Amino acid sequence: MPLNRSEGDLEIHFEIDDGMVSEARSAGTMYRGFENLLKGRSPLDGLVITPRICGICCTAQLKAAVKALDMIAGARVPDDAIRVRNLTLMAEQLQNDLRHTFLLFTPDFTSPAYREHSLFEEAVKRYRPLKGEAVIPTIRETKKIIEIIAILGGQWPHSSFMVPGGVVSVPGQNDIIQCRSLLANFRHWYERRILGCTLARWSDVKTLEDLDLWLHEKPAHQESELGFFIRFSREAQLHQLGNGHPNFISFGAYEMPVNTGLKAPSAGFLFPPGFFNNGAMNPFDQEKITEDVTFSHFKSHGDPRHPFEETTVIETPHDNTEAYSWGKAPRYDGYPAETGPLAELVIASNPLIKRLLDKDGPNVFIRQLARLIRPAFLLPAMDCWLKETGVGNETFYQKNEQLENGRGFGLIQAHRGALGHWVTLEDGKIAEYQVITPTAWNASPRDREGIRGPWEEALVGTIIKNPEHPVEIQHTIRSFDPCMVCCVHTIEGNRPIAKILC
Amino acid sequence: MSTTLYWIQGGGCGGDTWSFLSAESPDLTELFDILSIEMLWHPSLSALDPQSKEQLDRRILEDEIPLDILCVEGSIIQGPSGTGLADTLLGRPKKDLIGALAEKAFHVIAVGTCASFGGFGTDQETEATGMQFHKHDLGGFLGKKYKSKSGFPVINLPGCPCHSDVLAGTLSALANDLPLELNETNSPLDWYRIMVHQGCTRNEYHEYRVEEKQFGEKGCLFFYMGCQGPLVKGPCNKILWNRRSSKTRVGVPCFGCTRPDFPPRHPFFKTRNIEGIPIELPAGVSRAHYMAYKGMAAAAAPKRLIKRKSGI
Questions:
Q1: pTM
Q2: pLDDT at A8
Q3: Could you give the angle at the alpha carbon of A405 between the alpha carbons of A399 and A407, nearest 5°?
Q4: Whether A303 contacts A275, CB under 8 Å
Q5: CB–CB of A161 and B247 under 8 A?
Q6: Which residue of chain B comes nearest to A103, CA vs CA?
Q7: Do A468 and B51 touch (CB under 8 A)?
Q8: What angle do CA A37, A39, A45 make, to 5 degrees?
Q9: Which residues of B touch A124 (CB under 8 A)?
């Protein structure tokens, strides 16, 4: 079945036995060939081409691309450039988290499947596409916060202001003042309309009891977007939907400048890197990443390979092969892993999220909750870094060596999770470029052990109450914030098991 | 009576949609109200039931619902090997649906460079092309002779992404039956006869040939850094991006994203030149005169510019 409101096209093929999903396969339906398009080009060209992989996370692609080149150049990136890179990515993330929630996820609450839900009418009032009371302010406020990217980087979407050694822009005092005003306005809206309380009040919510106390404390909390989302989700029992693999991966988000007043919660990052495997936290090591192509229409080189060894060579699909996807299956230490805001907060040991996870396992409610509360962690850090930008004698760019030969990787947390670029240069040209996007992790097909990818696993066992309105499938997939245009090497799965329009 | 609008995405990144959401005064929702536009379908914004969507498509194709404006975002993917299977809907090539809808539409707008001219993926395994142009050549997916029911060819709004004001203005003109004058690549003259360079705050540096040779130097980006601002049409520095700035203002070269042959094969951050003078010069200038003018301009450059004391 085709699923819209994912960035790009996606079809889910599944089997239903007695109203329950017994098997699921996910297939992107578009192939754009970006990795192969980069080969033979000048090293800096990746900074222009990879943002065009995705219109909603172009700044994230740019940051991954520039970090790979920083590594090859051995660049020392000045603190102010680190701040500008982080601030622009954070502005894009605020935009993404709110737009995803109110333009892409909650419109499903207006489905006829919820006619009997006691909050249905209010959900329609809030979430009706282009008209809803939550939708209109979301469009208005998110476009304002991304003005920060235009001030510091020229335009959004699709700028290329990050270069090895820093950023090209030299923001002046007035630019920073403008950014601070935009941030203050956004924060005011987020506190008033989304949370219904101050960031300080929300930060006290650490346990399940705290959450109930907060919700019942005053009408402003119940009526806020967060409060309403919690109330709607509880009655719809979204915490029982979409239980998947208990593995999470984060590459680490927002590296700290060397000199900053912001306290690093852990190891130089605002959100630490890590691999959470069935209750145990493990340090992250990029060497343990492999790409498995057993069920993909790509040429296999034997054992799954690390992205530096991997190449993308398409094979023509034949109906008699086992392969069903043009997406590769990324694995960490052999395991599939979920990535995104939930993974970030689990690996950052956020007390509320950890307790919810212990109680119900990974599910639709907790994934979307993590996305909706993530801005509360970004806003104070942005405030701090904006105040610090341009006040010292630091420059925004440090010249470095010509890019000729070598290889480097750029690993970041994009809005949907772990994003990696692995780049090999030979004789001043791009020899190989591998991208593993967050959606490649989440939408992964099976691997050679037959282990399903995260959202395939999350779908299996789902009870579909009304096959005409399979909101359960829609919620589960959308809770991962799917971005199929990001599946840079994904193409139509050719063996549909069942096709139910979604 | 309302104007119906259907938005379909081919081989693209969604960037034109997200750019459109930045429309201001009026914003997207206000614009649709003012123009009485009824959005029948948008893949990222609609919440139609799957069955209702299939029914909608059928009813449009059977002339039960008029389709006033069809917006196409992203290239038309024809590969691999002409099958169109690299971009499908329910197992069928998406291009078939796009072609069928274009036959029913009163107006067709190609939103962004990929839909207009092919953009990313032209001459690659995906065999991408534009709605009615393949790079510079009229033809593309729908062919040279195609006209929508209004008698217009496909209206091209190139840019990677297309600026929200350009799309909002075009929709306003069409919904109000105002005349829309098109240039040689079927783009509205209002936005595509101005050069990207016009309005750039680095123009004074350009005037006196005070050029940037490395990032962040404050100077003009045309001679060395690959900037195509003086060569390429687009309103970036007139209407600005996100109401704030532009790439060239902050020091990112213009990559010529409205050009029919975008993306070029040569490096983005480097100006191709002969003896220090760019190979590609502003349209219509004589090379000898240009060299003489630029030499004199450089000699006349005031110290405050040479020392990069001027603001940008």
A1: 0.96
A2: 53
A3: 90
A4: no
A5: yes
A6: B45
A7: yes
A8: 80
A9: none
pLDDT, one tens digit per residue, over A434-493 is 999 999 999 998 999 999 999 999 999 999 998 778 889 889 999 998 875 444 332 223
- Looking only at the bridges linking them, the beta strands covering B92-93 and B137-138 are unpaired
Residue from B252, B254, B265 to probe the interface with A (highest A Cβ count within 10 Å): B252
ipTM at complex level: 0.97
Whole-angstrom Cα Rg for chain A? 22
Contacts of A502 in chain B (CB under 8 A): 50
List, for residues A232-268, the tens digit of each pLDDT value.
999 999 999 999 999 999 999 999 999 999 987 777 8
| Dist CA B103 CA B94 (whole Å) | 15
Helix (H, G, I), strand (E, B) or coil at B87: strand
Sequence-distant contacts of A254-261: CB under 8 A, at least 24 apart: A254/A86, A254/A89, A254/A90, A254/A381, A254/A413, A255/A82, A255/A86, A256/A82, A257/A79, A257/A80, A257/A82, A257/A83, A257/A385, A257/A388, A258/A79, A259/A79, A259/A392, A260/A79, A260/A83, A260/A384, A260/A385, A260/A388, A261/A384, A261/A388
Closest to A10 in 3D by CA, of B90, B35, B249: B90
For a pLDDT cut of 90, what percent of chain B falls above it? Answer: 85
Number of A:B CB contacts under 8 A?
Answer: 234
Assign A55 to helix, strand or coil.
coil
Q: B246: nearest CA in chain A?
A: A154
Nearest to B268 among A4, A45, A165 (CB): A45
**Closest CB to A151 among B15, B29, B245:** B245
Residues of B with CB below 8 A from A54's CB? 13-15
Contact yes or no for A435/A488 (Cβ under 8 A): yes
Shortest Cα distance from B94 to chain A (angstroms)? 10
